[in-house]
């Protein structure tokens, strides 16, 4: 293969990229925290074997194992003087694996990551120059600049790369919002700047699974001659027993690749969590496909009409665990806004109160995406809307000092219902460079919150007064081994949990199984129900969100409808699940999708009528 051949091939063929290197290195027994790039020198056999596996799966373009092989990142391992040696060894290994059957592109990762650090541009440029020159001298067919959170950093790398023209350059950004980079550029503007700076191919990789990258490409207006490259993650990761697990199946990845191809992608591979099986699924769908021009795909979804229902008056002094012993009790989740406009949130809370909800529960920066403080909104819900707020507390965002301070503030505001959860890792939120604190586990947070009810602070210091927190714990029944999830639940109850809130369930048999498996649990359980809005929403939840699985029947039903009809079908499915739940549980936990509170208001009214 050669440099000219890469661009020539892209004119009339879609190229299949490879998948994650780090994910497979861990599967090969390489410990987390090891410098993966050093393996080019110490374990070239392992690196070569991974390349071969992706090639055998159908990749016809592979990346060198050099994502972090720059002076800045290698210095953390004392390897800053081996930049040239590590990069050129990587090219040699990849070239031996690929032979004449595939292109070899030199991988150059962003240095800043998702965190704005005071690194001078000149220093970044020197680091990129050293690495890129090493890769070019070793004979790569092109360069792939990837996982850049900031456009200005990508432009610095491109300034270096274009010195080696006509070497093909692929430049990929990573974004959390659908149509905007972390430093505020629209995707259209960002791609325009990159192509003007010398990138022949632009695209997206990492942080997002296929669904968000599809939505991002749909947001782009048609532009003649724009070559696109995409490397999605295998969904959103779940942190289990010290490792990140990714939910997207190869089948789903292949189907998503076909959609990306229809949207104009010329290079399609995989990033974090993808395996040879994912690449094989892409290859089976797209091998030798001719490129298509980007099509305009518009998805119009209108909120369903709804009625505002009268609320049922209850004695507010009763806690949720007390209410649920007497009658069906409804918690409705409504996410705080990601911007400064909180009025729609308050309007939604008011509609849900009128429909008969017993509490509004507010997430704590769910999926590690920055949102308005749930403490502030909780106080507004309580005082302005007149409904009980139930705020989530994550172990991720606050150390033990901040947790106690936060709880003391909630006490002062009269907010006494909380849900203690671990929280999704920051690396996959909108500020991936932020620290994940995890001073304590969710078990610790439950225990320490209940300790405040004894008038004792986290440090053991007397607090003069006693708090009165009612603490919920999270329960994820969507696991392969339900008994292990129940065992974990038992420990949360032992730690002091007063009631339980489950992840959403979409299978009637599973609800029955949960009822049987938890009938010995002495505290109430609120079963999660989240109405689906579309087939895409269903497939995203099933394939990319950890802790959620949909039955084949539900996915099939959603696939038959679009737009408003799909939302109606989502509500019908949710109503059926509520009816099954009511036979076993008095607690209903409704989760509002995409701020469409009209949907959960209708379901709240349905519960009240029943």
SSE inventory with pairings:
Layout (H helix, E strand, L loop, with lengths): L2 H10 L2 E2 L5 H6 L11 H4 L1 H14 L3 E3 L7 H4 L8 H16 L4 E7 L11 H18 L3 E7 L2 H11 L7 E5 L13 H10 L4 E5 L4 H9 L9 E4 L6 E3 L2 E3 L4 H13 L2 E4 L7 H11 L33 H7 L2 E5 L9 H13 L3 E4 L11 H12 L2 E7 L5 H14 L3 E5 L20 H11 L17 E6 L6 H14 L3 E6 L3 H10 L7 E5 L5 H10 L7 H8 L3 H20 L4 E5 L5 H13 L1
Parallel strand pairs: 1-10, 2-3, 3-4, 4-5, 5-6, 6-7, 7-10, 11-12, 11-18, 12-13, 13-14, 14-15, 15-16, 16-17, 17-18
Antiparallel strand pairs: 8-9
Describe the structure.
The strands form three sheets. The protein has an eight-stranded parallel sheet with strand order 1-10-7-6-5-4-3-2. Strands 11-12-13-14-15-16-17-18 form an eight-stranded parallel β-barrel, surrounded by seven helices. The protein has a two-stranded antiparallel ribbon with strand order 8-9. It is built from 23 helices and 18 strands. Helix 10 (210-218) runs parallel beside helix 11 (250-262), helix 11 (250-262) crosses helix 12 (276-286) and helix 20 (535-544) packs antiparallel against helix 21. The chain is globular, with a radius of gyration of 26 Å. The longest helix has 20 residues, at 563-582. By secondary structure, the protein is α/β, with parallel strands linked by helices. The protein folds into two domains: 3-286, Homocysteine-binding-like domain (TIM Barrel), CATH 3.20.20; 329-609, TIM Barrel (Alpha-Beta Barrel), CATH 3.20.20.220. The model is unreliable at 295-316 (pLDDT under 50).
């Amino acid at each position: 293969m050669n440099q000219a051949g890469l661009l020539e091939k892209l004119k009339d063929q879609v190229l299949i990229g490879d998948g994650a290197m780090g994910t497979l290195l861990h599967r090969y027994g390489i410990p987390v925290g090891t410098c993966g790039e050093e393996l080019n020198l110490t374990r070239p056999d392992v690196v070569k074997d991974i390349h071969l596996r992706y090639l055998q799966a159908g990749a016809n373009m592979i990346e060198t194992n050099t994502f972090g092989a720059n002076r800045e990142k290698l210095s953390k391992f004392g390897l800053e003087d081996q930049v040239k040696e590590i990069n050129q060894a990587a090219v040699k290994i990849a070239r031996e694996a690929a032979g004449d059957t595939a292109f070899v592109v030199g991988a150059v990762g962003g240095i800043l990551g998702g965190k704005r650090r005071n690194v001078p541009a000149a220093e970044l440029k020197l680091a990129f120059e050293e690495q890129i020159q090493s890769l070019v001298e070793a004979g790569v067919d092109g360069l792939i600049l990837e996982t850049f959170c900031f456009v200005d950093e990508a432009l610095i790398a491109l300034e270096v790369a274009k010195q080696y023209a006509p070497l093909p350059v692929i430049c990929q950004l990573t974004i959390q919002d659908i149509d905007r980079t972390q430093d505020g550029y629209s995707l259209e503007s960002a791609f325009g700047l990159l192509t003007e700076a010398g990138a022949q191919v632009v695209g997206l990789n990492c942080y997002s699974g296929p669904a968000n990258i599809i939505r991002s490409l749909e947001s782009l207006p048609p532009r003649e001659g724009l070559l696109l490259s995409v490397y999605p993650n295998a969904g959103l990761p779940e942190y289990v027993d010290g490792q990140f697990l990714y939910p997207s199946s190869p089948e789903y990845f292949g189907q998503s690749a076909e959609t990306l191809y229809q949207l104009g992608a010329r290079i399609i591979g995989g990033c974090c969590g993808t395996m040879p099986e994912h690449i094989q699924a892409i290859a089976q769908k797209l091998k030798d496909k001719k490129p298509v021009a980007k099509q305009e795909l518009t998805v119009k979804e209108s909120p369903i009409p709804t009625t505002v229902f009268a609320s049922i008056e209850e004695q507010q002094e009763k806690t949720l665990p007390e209410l649920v012993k007497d009658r069906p009790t409804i918690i409705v989740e409504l996410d705080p806004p990601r911007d400064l406009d909180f009025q729609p949130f308050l309007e939604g809370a008011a509609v849900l109160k009128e429909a008969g909800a017993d509490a509004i529960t507010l997430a704590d920066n769910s999926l590690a995406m920055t949102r308005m403080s749930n403490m502030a909104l909780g106080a507004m819900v309580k005082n302005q809307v007149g409904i009980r707020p139930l705020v989530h507390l994550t172990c991720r965002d606050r150390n033990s000092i901040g947790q106690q301070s936060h709880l003391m503030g909630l006490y002062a505001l009269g907010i006494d219902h909380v849900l203690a959860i671990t929280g999704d890792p920051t690396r996959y939120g909108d500020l991936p460079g932020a620290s994940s604190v995890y001073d304590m586990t969710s078990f610790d947070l439950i225990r320490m919150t209940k300790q405040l009810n004894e008038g004792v602070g986290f440090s053991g210091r007397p607090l003069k007064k006693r708090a009165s927190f009612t603490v919920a714990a999270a329960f994820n029944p969507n696991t392969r081994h339900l008994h292990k999830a129940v065992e974990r639940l038992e420990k949360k109850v032992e730690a002091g949990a007063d009631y339980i809130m489950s992840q959403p369930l979409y299978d009637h048999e599973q609800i029955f199984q949960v009822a049987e498996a938890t009938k010995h649990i002495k505290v109430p359980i609120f079963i999660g129900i989240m109405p689906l809005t579309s087939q895409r929403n269903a497939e995203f939840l099933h394939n990319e969100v950890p802790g959620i699985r949909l039955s084949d029947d539900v996915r099939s039903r959603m696939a038959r409808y679009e737009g408003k009809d799909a939302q109606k079908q989502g509500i019908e499915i949710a109503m059926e699940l509520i009816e099954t739940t009511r036979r076993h549980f008095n607690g209903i936990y409704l989760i509002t999708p995409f701020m469409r509170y009209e949907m959960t208001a209708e379901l709240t009214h349905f519960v009240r009528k029943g």
